[in-house]
Amino acid sequence: MDSISERHVKNSKNQMGIIFVLLIVTLLFSIFAMGKGSSSSLDMLSTMKIIIGVEDANSIQSDIIWKLRLPRILMAIVGGAALAIAGALMQGCLGNPLVSPLTLGVASGAALGAALAIVMGFTIVKSPEIAIVANAFIFSLIVVAIIIQLGRMRSVTAESYILVGIAITFITGAIVSTMQYFATDAQLSQLAHWSFGSLSRPTLENTLWISVAVIGLMPTAMKWSWDLNTLALGGDDFAVSTGVDPVSIRKNILILSAFMTSIIIAFTGLIGFVGLAAPHMSRLVVGNDYRKLIPCSAIFGSFLMLFSDTIGRTLFAPIVIPVGVMLSVIGGPFFMYLLLKIRR
Amino acid sequence: MKNILNANEISFSWGDNEVLKDINFGIRSNEILAILGVNGAGKSTLLKCLNGILKLGSGKIEILEKDTSEMNLIEISKLMSYVPQSVRSSFSVDVFDVVLLGRRPHINWRISEEDRQIVSKTIRLFDLEDFAFRKFDKLSGGERQRVVIAKAVAQDPQIFLFDEPTSDLDLKNQIEVMQIMKDITSVSGRKSAIIAIHDINIAARFADRIMLLHNGKIFALGTPSEVLTKSNIAEVFGVTCDVIPSTNDHSMRIIVKDGIKSK
Lengths: 344, 263
Description:
The complex is a heterodimer.
Chain A: H1 3-35, H2 44-52, H3 59-94, H4 106-120, H5 131-152, H6 158-182, H7 185-196, H8 204-223, H9 225-241, H10 246-268, H11 273-286, H12 290-314, H13 323-342
Helix pairs in contact in A: 1-2, 1-3, 1-12, 3-8, 3-9, 3-10, 3-11, 3-12, 4-5, 4-6, 4-7, 5-10, 8-10, 11-12, 11-13, 12-13
Chain B: E1 5-14, E2 17-27, E3 32-36, H1 43-51, E4 58-63, E5 66-67, H2 73-79, E6 80-83, H3 95-100, H4 113-125, H5 141-154, E7 159-163, H6 171-187, E8 192-196, H7 200-206, E9 209-214, E10 217-222, H8 224-227, H9 230-237, E11 239-245, E12 252-259
Parallel strand pairs in B: 3-8, 3-9, 6-7, 7-8
Antiparallel strand pairs in B: 1-2, 1-4, 4-5, 9-10, 11-12
């Protein structure tokens, strides 16, 4: 093997090593996070023993870990991963680093659905426990349907998707604002709570179903890695010359990303920053090869979400600061630091 | 000798504006065909139609006697590689990885040892060793152009389609890149190139045949000395010139003088 090939292989191995280390750190941190909280604090070893059932912990500790913290931590891991993957896919297929899972207007659709349920009492599913989630999910799917319709037009460009997404955001924003204008204080407060983004809403059962859906969609995302490499680098003409049909690939990738975003946001409320920042942090450490970028973004997304939520739960305990707020407060400066340090 | 590519009666329109009208031509093995014409003559459009980036209004394109409308993009990209006028990226990618994208039609998932070797060899061929692990978006326009041409070479197609390959290059780089293309098309297998270009002298020196496109039609097609006559140049480009036959090789020099005032 010549020196250029050797160096490429070495770089590639180093990047895989970084991904592995990040994975281990995230797993260890999730065990640590499971032991920490306002009601009781355990060290990692004791937490580990309770999880694997070696130690017969008292039932309160076991209940706290299994029923309260595990769903939340699992949701942080899965939600962070899904939003980060959606962000990475969308940035690549639209060739635009400013894009996040919120760009297409999926989250605005979800917000409209939630507002209709909270303020107007308009619910598609009548069961009160899931009415808001169902509304948010169904209205975000309406946005996915608009994206599918848009994708059927042969002349649609990357910019058209972004502009339509911005238009949807404005339209739904105006409707939600109108509803807020007429809402009671209690309704306003509930809507504000929804939009903060929180991991406390999904139950363990919800979280397990969400995990199955996200894990099920991941191989499809990975399958498009080479197409994304081509689209992200050189745009449509360059992609065609390399054997990639940009119009159909972009449509499929956007539908998948929008769907992944819908699943998460319907349960958690508005969380956007992780989908913008995690892919960029990953680009700084593993480069732009989507075969590595997708798994690395997923891990970074999980870690960011988990870390922010753990700080939000413990910093001012027993007050819990919503994860959406913490993500921006902690993730924002960290993201800027990384960008400035590495691009110096 | 059979043509490796045939364009039969191809036409293309942007809305009501007919850009290409009944274009007929073929390209043989080991040949460089330069397409010349004024801005808007349809040079880039013709290349994009050949590569399948733009769908033909009518007509047929055959590569190795196979209709391209019956082939998928991967099959076409193994036979033909298009190099756009410029490639700009919003993301930072190593030069090696850009050239590696040329192997995309041949790769399913894993990069084979052979793919890496082809990329390394191409990087050396284009004197890009020092740039191999630098970021593509940090290079100058000329360096980026070399990298994108190297990507097309790593793709190992039969036919190269170049849209203004020398537009961002300095004089030395223009000659070097064209010489590499000349070498690739003249020695290795059955490779050919179709090059849309503005520089009439570069075309005269390196092309085996020249196509003059005028108002969406082929105005003239033949060897440089057949096509690049004073009257053809005056008619198509609207300039007067002197055409000086070269003494040491088959190429000639065209010295452009004045624009002809339209009546």
